Backbone:
């Protein structure tokens, strides 16, 4: 019998808990071939993917989203540049939360990047390095430091 790996053992790069605004173009194939544009905030991010929170996805869109693989283009606001970091991937999981007394309806999306291009790697590493050196709070969660 083999032992299942923990999340930190499976990860190839560090995961950072950080809130960065982003714009997500979400293609839900069952609806249309026109992407939905939604605002979100990163919850954590790594070289393989990210988790984000959005208040812009309706429950109907969420239910359509989980019927099949959805492709995404993410533009993450770079706090040190006027140009966003652009990444492409797919939604690998989604978790919808109805309204509670402490929060409005929202959805968490788990996104796996298709390819982390050399330019995106440089941009991402540069932003994370600058954030770590600045007064902006970033919490590094278990993993290997990006290089």
Residues:
């Amino acid at each position: 019998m083999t032992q299942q790996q923990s999340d930190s053992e499976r990860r190839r790069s560090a995961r950072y808990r950080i809130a960065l605004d982003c714009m997500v173009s979400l293609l839900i194939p069952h609806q249309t071939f026109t992407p939905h544009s939604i605002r979100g905030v990163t919850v954590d991010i790594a070289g393989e993917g990210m988790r984000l929170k959005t208040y812009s996805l309706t429950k109907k869109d969420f239910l359509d989203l989980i019927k099949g693989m959805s492709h995404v283009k993410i533009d993450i606001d770079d706090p040190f540049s006027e140009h966003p970091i652009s990444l492409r991937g797919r939604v690998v999981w989604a978790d919808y939360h109805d309204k509670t007394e402490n929060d409005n309806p929202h959805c968490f999306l788990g996104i796996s990047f298709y390819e982390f291009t050399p330019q995106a790697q440089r941009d991402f590493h540069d932003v994370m390095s600058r954030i770590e050196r600045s007064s902006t709070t970033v919490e590094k969660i278990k993993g290997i430091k990006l290089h």
Observations:
- The first strand starts at residue 15 and ends at 17.
- The radius of gyration is 16 Å.
- The domain at 15-118 is CATH 2.40.10.220 (Thrombin, subunit H).
- Helices lie at 7-10, 59-65, 118-133.
